[in-house]
Write a structure and sequence with these properties.
The protein has helices at 8-14, 18-30, 43-53, 72-85, 99-107, 129-138, 160-172, 215-221, 231-234, 239-259; strands at 34-37, 59-62, 88-95, 119-122, 144-148, 177-181, 193-196, 226-229. The protein is an alpha/beta fold. The longest helix has 21 residues, at 239-259. Helix 7 links the parallel strand 5 and strand 6. The protein is built from ten helices and eight strands. Helices cover 42% and strands 15% of the residues. Bound molecules: 5-bromo-uridine-5'-monophosphate (5BU). 5-bromo-uridine-5'-monophosphate binds at residues 37, 39, 63, 92, 148, 151-153, 181, 197-198, 210, 228-232.
């Protein structure tokens, strides 16, 4: 069934979640549905990539626990870069413990993720307590959470009823949950944002179970809102030119949808 798509701008207006509203607004203003997964182990290199690629993305996705040289200074610089280029920061932490533990993992330790990451994500395997724990501090600080409804990797167990349960948990916790990590649209509610990793032009996967789709497949066929690209950009000969290519591919696929 082909139904008329709402634009990012229209969806921003419908959102009550502050982070979802902000992200849809950025996507509209920057004409970008591209998230860059900057999976490098050097903070200096990460900051350079963030500054170079920043103009073309709506979101920067990090794994700060792979950095060899994490510091408070890095956080300050990353926040400044996000402000300079108008993108949000998503720490791909994949919280997956009881509420009390994830709460501590979110606010304390070396990383203090809640202080700087606009968005985090969580597995739903522990049940809704994982969301309740994170939202205790996340909601007052106007942070957002994505639930992992599906994964891009081969043999993932996040399918069927598990995925359906993720949608239900999102609906019941929509003051904090703003959307999903998935491989296709999970709900027609326009306030939830769908983000898909496992995106590459001309690649089918890696040696460790990753599976890729093209930006057009993800956006036009599978109806996801944000494409998450890591090595497709990182390993390119010219990462900046390649980021522009992904930005255009992703946004063109979205515009084709809205015109239908
Ligand atoms: P790639 O280099 O584009 O394959 O990187 C994909 C990124 O998305 C990487 O940081 C993964 O940890 C992340 N990811 C994923 O690939 N698949 C998933 O289902 C989830 C996260 Br959830």
């Amino acid at each position: 069934k082909q139904k008329k798509m709402l634009t990012y701008q229209q969806r921003a207006a419908l959102c009550t979640h502050p982070v979802a509203k902000r992200l849809f607004t950025i996507m509209h203003e920057k004409r970008s549905n591209l998230a860059f997964s900057v999976d490098v182990t050097s903070a200096t290199q990460l900051l350079q990539f963030a500054d170079d690629i920043g103009p073309y993305i709506c979101l920067l996705k990090t794994h700060v626990d792979i950095l060899e040289d994490f510091s408070q200074d890095f956080v300050t610089r990353l926040q400044a870069t996000a402000k300079k280029h108008n993108f949000l920061i998503f720490e791909d932490r994949k919280f997956a413990d009881i509420g009390q533990t994830v709460l501590k993992q979110y606010i304390s330790g070396l990383y203090r993720i809640c202080d700087w990451a606009h968005i985090v994500n969580a597995h739903i395997v522990p049940g809704p307590g994982v969301i309740h724990g994170l939202s205790k501090v996340g909601v007052p600080k106007e942070r957002g959470c994505l639930l992992i409804g599906q994964m891009s990797s081969q043999g993932s167990l996040a399918t069927g009823e598990y995925t359906t349960a993720a949608v239900k948990m999102a609906e019941e916790n929509s003051n904090f949950v703003m959307g999903f990590i998935c491989q296709g649209s999970l709900t027609d509610d326009p306030r939830f944002i769908h983000m898909a990793p496992g995106v590459q032009l001309g690649g089918s996967g890696d040696q460790l179970g990753q599976q890729y789709n093209s930006p057009a497949q993800m956006v036009t066929e599978k109806r996801v809102d944000v494409i998450i690209v890591g090595r497709g950009i990182l390993n390119a000969e010219d990462p900046v030119a390649t980021a522009k290519l992904y930005q255009h591919a992703g946004f063109e696929a979205y515009e084709n949808l809205s015109n239908n």
